Amino acid sequence: MAQKVRIGAALLFGVALWNQSAAAQDCSCDHKIEPSTTSFDGVDNGVMPGDRVCVMAGQREFLRFQRMQGTESARIEIINCGGLVEIHNDTRAYALVFED
Q1: How confident is the prediction along the chain (100 residues), in pLDDT tens digits per residue?
Q2: Residue ranges of the domains in the chain?
Q3: What is the rounded distance in angstroms from the CA atom of residue 95 to the CA atom of residue 86?
Q4: Nearest CA to 65 among 92, 36, 43?
Q5: Regarding beta strands 96-99 and 31-33, do their DSSP bridges make them parallel or antiparallel, or are they unpaired?
Q6: How far apart are the first and last CA of the chain?
Q7: Cα separations (Å) of 43 from 2, 11, 79?
Q8: What's the predicted TM-score (pTM) here?
Q9: Cα separations (Å) of 59 from 32, 48, 73, 89?
Q10: What's the CA gap between 34 and 36, in Å, rounded?
């Protein structure tokens, strides 16, 4: 009986740690793009050379980046944060776009 309790407690603790690490992931983002956002303008959002832009985990139909201006020595880094970013649709000729 005591062994079953220890195993159950260990599993519960492991699941709690796994959930906490996924929810509390710190990606050191300068800017975050939530799953509900479909268009992100670098100029309007104050993105500067050397900034880190985080695309937050989740599903979206498309994502358009506009006016993202880095430099050769200070590039803009775009990463996923908090898990998988899935972009999919059946109605558009694009899913991920970068425009000047």
Answers
A1: 544 444 444 444 444 444 444 454 799 999 999 999 999 999 999 999 999 999 999 999 999 999 999 999 999 999 999 999 999 999 988 899 999 9
A2: 27-99
A3: 10
A4: 43
A5: unpaired
A6: 65
A7: 60, 47, 18
A8: 0.74
A9: 15, 26, 32, 10
A10: 5
